[in-house]
Amino acid sequence: MITKHSDNCTNLVMESEGLRLEYYVCAGGSGTIGYGHTGHDVYEGMVITEQRAIDILNEDLYFVDKFVSKINPGWNQNQFDSIVDFAFNLGGNALKTSTLLKKAQIDVND
Questions:
Q1: Do 57 and 10 meet the contact criterion of CB atoms below 8 Å apart?
Q2: Is the pLDDT of residue 77 over 80?
Q3: What single-letter DSSP state applies at residue 47?
Q4: pLDDT on residue 106
Q5: 73/47 Cα distance (integer angstroms)
Q6: Residues facing 33 on adjacent strands
Q7: Phi, psi of 95 (to 5 degrees)
Q8: Could you say which of 17, 22, 50, 59 is catalytic?
Q9: pLDDT at 73
Q10: DSSP state for residue 28 in the 8-state scheme
């Protein structure tokens, strides 16, 4: 069973999120920095380096991998990466209740 995203997934997240080295408020209203990182450690006026943004992204994706691995019914690498990208972008709760997850589990089990 696949338990870790691939480099292709990392690159997809980096490309789709874009890189912002200075604090900003995302469309969802959260303080954000780097490659879409939000959390208690992000604050107004914060500035980071590109390397720190990469490090933060890797930390974030590690936790997303762990979350997605718990619900992985045997996806291939591309499927796992797609679900990780979705969960990173919209959050674990959105994934749990998503049509995407329902369809992905049906496709694997059929």
A1: yes
A2: yes
A3: B
A4: 58
A5: 39
A6: 37
A7: -65, -45
A8: 17
A9: 78
A10: T
DSSP classification of residue 83 = H
Q: What is the pTM of this model?
A: 0.88
Q: Residue 87 and residue 65: Cα distance in Å, rounded?
A: 9
Query: Which parts of 15-91 are beta strand (E)?
Result: 20-25, 31-34, 37-38
Residue 51 pLDDT > 60: yes
Interior angle at CA 65, CA 20 and CA 84, nearest 5: 65
Q: Which residues have a Cβ under 8 Å from the Cβ of 79 and sit 6 or more positions away?
A: 104, 108
Distance separating alpha carbons of residues 46 and 21, to the nearest angstrom:
8
Residue 22 annotated to the active site:
no
State the chain's mean pLDDT as an integer: 92
Adjacency order of strands within the sheet including 20-25: 20-25, 31-34, 37-38
Query: Is the pLDDT higher at 51 or at 101?
Result: 51
Q: How many CA atoms lie within 13 A of 79 on its CB side?
A: 17
CA angle 94, 95, 99 (to 5 degrees): 100
Q: What is the pLDDT of residue 110?
A: 45
On the question of pLDDT at 80 being above 50, the answer is yes
